[in-house]
Amino acid sequence: MKIYTKTGDKGMTGLFGGARVSKDDIRIEAYGTLDELNSFIGALISSMDIEGQNEILIEVQNRLFTIGSNLASDPSRDMITPDLTEADIKILEDAMDNMNENIEPLRAFILPGGSLAVGLCHQCRTICRRAERRVVSLNNVSSVDNLIGKYLNRLSDYLFVLGRMIAKSQGVKEVNWEPRKT
């Protein structure tokens, strides 16, 4: 099977269900940003190993494909796509609650970085926030399942807490933001 189709050479791409849209359509931007996030999560997984978190991140990668398949489907057709559930969101919330029991309470804004894994967590978090913004933009023109926005919002929180947990496990000191004194 050839990976190239040549059907996108003129700036158009196909949705599941057959509709053709511009490659800069907000729908394509939304699920393309999810694809970018998924790739960075793969790099994050490769850069760290905290008990239980790699398994959660692989689950996240699977859910990002679930969301992507939903967003990549032609909204004018009644398509059956994999579903996202409240249980998927609860996995993230429970993981955050468990990690928060083992890290100091947040008392200031912290700067991203300290190690490659911590930096990748923050990069994933910011890509996730962008994906969430793209989904909001898409929802302004075409209905999007409200669990998608909720999941992405919770995922960005999870990635922030995970970054803090990684810093702790690696003995990396978090650096607080120091606003300029005037």
Please explain how this structure is put together:
The chain has 182 residues and is mainly α. It has a single domain (12-74, 104-170), classed as Cobalamin adenosyltransferase-like (Hypothetical Protein Ta1238, Chain: A, Up-down Bundle), CATH 1.20.1200. 58% of the residues lie in helices and 3% in strands. It has helices spanning 26-47, 53-71, 86-100, 116-139, 146-170, and strands spanning 12-14, 20-22. A two-stranded antiparallel sheet has the order 1-2. A hairpin with a 5-residue loop joins strand 1 (12-14) and strand 2 (20-22). Helix 3 runs parallel beside helix 5 (146-170). The longest helix has 25 residues, at 146-170. The chain starts with 11 loop residues before the first strand and ends in a 12-residue tail after the last helix. The mean pLDDT is 90.
SSE topology sketch:
Layout: E1 12-14, E2 20-22, H1 26-47, H2 53-71, H3 86-100, H4 116-139, H5 146-170
Antiparallel strand pairs: 1-2
Helix pairs in contact: 1-2, 1-4, 3-5, 4-5
> How are the strands of the largest sheet arranged?
1-2
The pLDDT mean sits at: 90
How far is the first residue's CA from the last residue's CA?
A: 63 Å
Total of domains = 1
In brief:
The protein is mainly α and 182 residues long. It has helices spanning 26-47, 53-71, 86-100, 116-139, 146-170; strands spanning 12-14, 20-22.
